[in-house]
Amino acid sequence: MPSPMSTPLSCSLCIVVPVLNEAQGIEALLQSLAPLRQRGARVVVVDGGSQDDTRALAQAHADAVIEGPCGRALQMNAGAALGWGEVLLFLHADTTLPERADVHLLQALSRGHVWGRFDVRIAGRPWMLAVVARLMNWRSRWTGIATGDQAIFVRRDVFAQVGGFALQPLMEDIDLSQRLRAVGPAACLRQRVVTSGRRWEQRGVWRTILLMWRLRWRYWRGESAHTLARDYR
Question: Is 178 inside any structural domain?
């Protein structure tokens, strides 16, 4: 188990963005990362086989656009495998970072944390989405488990030590959090990422809440992530 070494604010950051058919929003997302790139962060977009213009649109706004095997965990591992950055930040394509996110996360690492996540706000019309976000943030602090929507960040050496993302189609964020939690507690930053509420709006807020809680319960009981992924779809 590594000691919680101090991480200087000048250490390099690599932002890994897994995508699949995200042409509608990928340019806006990557443009929002321009200030971080100006401060030295590098952005890697990992495409899982898009059938739209995602890759072409991303080219002008990222340091690398690569193809990886389809599956978020596989794509994020592929981006990390480029070897860029002492710190990795995994960012979903429908999530935007808070202002000066790089500064906030590096400060948390300099205080001795080796990984962490941000609080989350869910963008959308249903009022219940604000409640869902508050519960996600509270649950994460209580359990020490982060979700991918909260933009997980981790020191590269620690990510390698725990073996990266497990090769599973669902709950890869929970699985990684459990292994990282064994190394050290998460830095739970109060600054908020903003994630799209589209999946809640498409499926229905209450239906999605019940579905996710049911899937999580089954996962905790030991059911295969592959079985749960079929039910999720």
Answer: yes
The CATH code of the domain that includes 150 is: 3.90.550.10
80 is a domain residue: yes
Q: How far apart are CA 230 and CA 134, in angstroms?
A: 28
Residue 22 tokens, joined: 């995200």
At 189, the pLDDT band (50, 70, 90 cuts) reads very high
Q: Which amino acid is at 124?
A: G
Read off the pLDDT of residues 2-31 as tens digits, 9 standing for 90 and up. Answer: 344 444 455 799 999 999 999 999 999 999
Total-model pTM: 0.91
Tally of domains in the chain: 1
8 Å CB contact between 82 and 64 = yes
Q: Which domain holds residue 68?
A: 13-123+145-196
